[in-house]
Fold these 3 entries.
Entry 1:
Amino acid sequence: MTIRKLGVMGAGTMGSGIAQSAAQSGYAVIMVDTNDAAVERALDGAAKTWDRGVEKGRLTETDAEAAKTNLSASASMDDLHDADLVIEAVFEDFDVKAALFRALGKVVAADAILATNTSSFRVDDLARHVAEPERFLGMHYFVPANINKLVEVVRGQNTAEATFATALDFARSTAKEPLACRDSYGFVVNRFFCPCVNEGVRLVDEGHAPERVDAVSRQVFGSPLGVLTVMNLSKARIAMNACTTLGGLGAFYEPCTGLIRMGEADAAWEFGEEPAADNAADAAIADRLRGATFLAALELLDEEVAAPDAIDLGAFHGLRWETTPCSAMDDLGQDGTIRLVEAVAALYGRDMPRSTARAGSLLVG
């Protein structure tokens, strides 16, 4: 199937970013939202972004004007009747999303692809509310969606091969890096990043300074932002909810005491002066953060949710980690990986993943 027109349900942060990216890539895009103020902000924000691109030499005036022409908005879902692909990007409420897909089924063409941008719900659970679920899948974008290159393209149990292939091609045609994966709680990036954040907060609960946890996480993963800083940006409440969703997988994934406290208060970390480095303490922090991340990544491999290179793709583009999980485990080798993973698994009474035996050759084996 060829995608010519994109529909985006929701003109908030995610919806507007997805729409902007596709319009700039040459697609006719219509955003649908009943909130007039949100629509106005989205259209105005996109126009200003493209104008700045012209000023800085990143876009030609012709391209900027074409992008503006490509992007339109409506308050009526009926205007999606001729869309080839519709991406839902409303707020994270399962009942709202389910009702939306039931309504969309009565509007769009029978062969139109429907996708959810959910970050917390399973694609297969939402698919129960979609007519012809073979044309349904997940397309999880990362903030800011107009800039971040990563899109998790999530195949549900009933997603047709042609639907999946078309979604992957569409993502590539909008200058994105699609991460192909199977449906699972947390998909790929949240599945290993949420435990990493959670473990960082546990370390603070145990007495480590948040400034050191944040600094060590930057060093360990080669990232511009530490895990607690990322939590501040994405909101503690969101991190708590994500870990709560993953909590069905066991105590390792459940939100720790500090994360629940921060999430319920909708609080942010207030960093003071960074304490001097303490080699022993910093090594303990590094080991726990790496062990938690590796444990979750290896479980993803056991469950065949995604391949090792896809996991690393997610870390690199989605989180801007220079030191990615599977590459790092290959560098450590089997013995080094076992040491870190075994220690964390023991803390939560978790079995060692079978894929630990592949450490050292994950990306080539």
Entry 2:
Amino acid sequence: MIGSVLSRYVFFQTLLGVALALSVILAMVVLVDFVELTRTIGTRVGASPVLLGAFALMRAPMLIETTLPFIFLFGVMWSMFRLNRRSELVVMRASGMSAWKFLTPALILAVGFGVLAAVAINPAASRLNAEFERQRNALENGGDTGGDISEEGVWLRESRSDGQLVIRARAALSGGRRLDGVTLYVYELDPENRATFQRRLDAEQAVLRGGFWQLSNAWESEPDTEPVFHASLAIPTELDPDRLLERFGAPQSLSFWDLRRQAALLREAGFAAGPYELRWHRLLATPLTLAAMTVVAAAASLRLARRGGAFQLAIIGALVGFGLFFSENFLAALGRTGVLPIPLAAWTASTIALLGGLFVVSTVEDG
């Protein structure tokens, strides 16, 4: 009975520390992002502070997702140091509660929040970030995004030396390289350098190849002429496939639930799907990452306060946490380039940090 009461107490104390760290880091990232948006967007288009504040709040969930490991590192460390300084850990040990028992509630919180972050917070953050990008593009282009996904479908505009190509599609797949339900409007420059409508093409599908759109089952219509059917038709383009992929399907812009589907579509189209698989694995490893940060924080703060050295241990714990963060990003870069297998790149750093932290805790607890 006493053990369960103490476990609940440690759980809520840890939750309090994480909430405090979340509040501080959220305030910092929103403030810094607001200043950055004021510098980059506000000075160019004269956006109001209210709109820029709304933009900063839209981006906040994505930024919080990035800083979540540090939120748990500092939150758990603060709560454990607080329990230690008030000699509550000494009382718990005297009541027969080992370090493993009061570390378990913190680990349960970390794993639970990690699962929630991957399956719920990440999709919401992706949608808000996509809405931010859409509104920012519309603002910077005077209401015309030049390439966006809306309720009316996908719109692209390509300015060429001989005119313009405007593309509307029902859906964009494979990172924008495959368009379904396509309508193309072809404009050519007249002698006075004005864009004049020349023809319209309606196709079931358009696939971006090397320098051209490959249309399937297309109807070509010109003013004052009968429509002509083409089973296959190539339309030259200067659009960069990598920029299309970046706009319509960058791994960071997709939610946890969409990444595997996007990877499958890319593989089906013959494109590299590694970045999407890596992003999915890293989100899947979020509970492990937060558990590793929790154990690192506990290892740095379980030493009895009367023995001294608490500040030095806090610094070491913070450095180890930052080291884990940069190691994960370094291994992810190796995974993106194919040097390491993707599962190994996504899971190795957190696994090593968790095992190392557990070793330190067992050394402190059992000698």
Entry 3:
Amino acid sequence: MPITTCIFDAYGTLFDVAAAARQAASEPQFFKIKETWPQLAEHWRLKQLQYTWLRAITQAHTDFWEVTQDGLDWALEKCGVDGDEELRERLLALYWELQAYPEVPEMLQTLKAAGLNTAILSNGSPDMLDGAVQSAGIEILLDDNLSVQSVGIFKPDSRVYDLVGQRFGCAKDEVLFVSSNGWDAAGATGYGFTTAWVNRSGEPMDRMPWKPKHVLRNLTDIPKIVGL
């Protein structure tokens, strides 16, 4: 069946998760991370993801904002800058204002102009997603922000992917699911979605039972994948 619905992961896919650390590092009062902000951003993101997996496995679900703060605290200690409350608060504030990647608005506009459904499906809590979407100015280009909060478990649990069919009434093979996380794209492939992995940094393919159908360096070619 043709693709009718394009679903996007949020963090790292539509929104640049390194933007918070990069912005803070450019501000004079946070000179201590001027050189190490890339490592801080990487540690923060990795721990954020690891904590979602651990909480899903142990059935200890919590709000994604708590996971985000826990990941940052670990990363700050790892980088030797824990205890700086001003830096911590600035980084957390900036996370609500993450920048969208530059190709995102035009790509979404093309999909919407062609009549496709567009939405986010994310581990993020509803208020976090609303803040990011509004900050990026793309709210009119998305039909919905679907959050795992409604099912109480993080991706890649199948109950999360179920939210797409429940919201749009579409079959699995009508969905293009797009994520910058290889494990997320693989999980969605196993679920039955057509998938695209946005591999911006040239990472190796995850060794999982399923592989994404498409591998891209950015989101520019998403309209081509759906035949536009």
